[in-house]
Write a structure and sequence with these properties.
homodimer, alpha+beta, Arc Repressor Mutant, subunit A, 3-stranded antiparallel beta sheet, DNA-binding
Chain lengths: 111, 111
DNA sequence: TTGACATGCAACCAAATGGTTGCATAATGT
DNA sequence: ACATTATGCAACCATTTGGTTGCATGTCAA
């Protein structure tokens, strides 16, 4: 089990950091500079946020020359749902989510 | 979709509040007094934590006379995993978790 | 080689957070 | 009726958090 669950939750507690995860979810492997373009704050502030995400192992970093590429890691997120949702509850909730998703997709087709 | 995701993440960011969820996960419907017994802080501090959990809809309360009963609500947690884990990734991760769980249960039987 | 670009490091500051204490209110039981 | 029990509300305080600015370092390209 993950010994650094605390870092994960702390990292997810901030709107800006969640937005960074969203941005990476859409397009993985972006540089610091690219990520900065999505947030209305200084590069140094974004750097701090990314550092928290890295220590929480929510994003992984690969250096390419002078560029720092950021990748999303879904494992810690999944461990959260493992913690407080029972086996059967999970299946029930998943069925609900899938149903809702299906309805939304259908709605988009018609609209 | 949930419009108050922020409250959920803020609520989960604190170790004491996560412990409260763990305690409720083991035994649902406890009073404030009972919950206080599990944490090393004043009743007022616990009250504040529970208020955050309530506004995040992570716990639901029912009054019985002068007692306040607290119940765990798994829905917001599940919505977290919906946000950053793709459909296929989720199945893969779930298979991994189930495998790990199975191994641990087996180990416990043998030990 | 040198200038521009991508990033790191450190000091600083205002606001939010997590805890305390003290007092108030309402339900319970003898 | 009244002491006890279960909880709420408010003021206060130290620490953490999220942001800034200024400067340093390392890589690329002409």
């Amino acid at each position: 089990m993950c010994l650094e669950m605390d870092a994960v939750f702390k990292a997810l507690a901030d709107e800006s950091r969640r937005k960074l995860l969203d941005v990476l979810h859409k397009s993985n492997g972006q540089t610091l500079g690219e990520l900065c373009a999505h947030l209305d704050m200084t590069r140094q502030a974004v750097t701090k946020h990314l550092l928290l995400l890295e220590t929480a192992k929510l994003v992984t970093v690969v250096w390419r020359g002078r560029e720092k590429l950021h990748y999303l890691n879904p494992v810690p997120i999944h461990e959260i749902s493992e913690r407080w949702i029972g086996k059967y509850e999970r299946h029930r909730l998943q069925a609900l989510s899938d149903l809702k998703r299906g309805l939304e997709e259908n709605k988009n087709k018609k609209g």
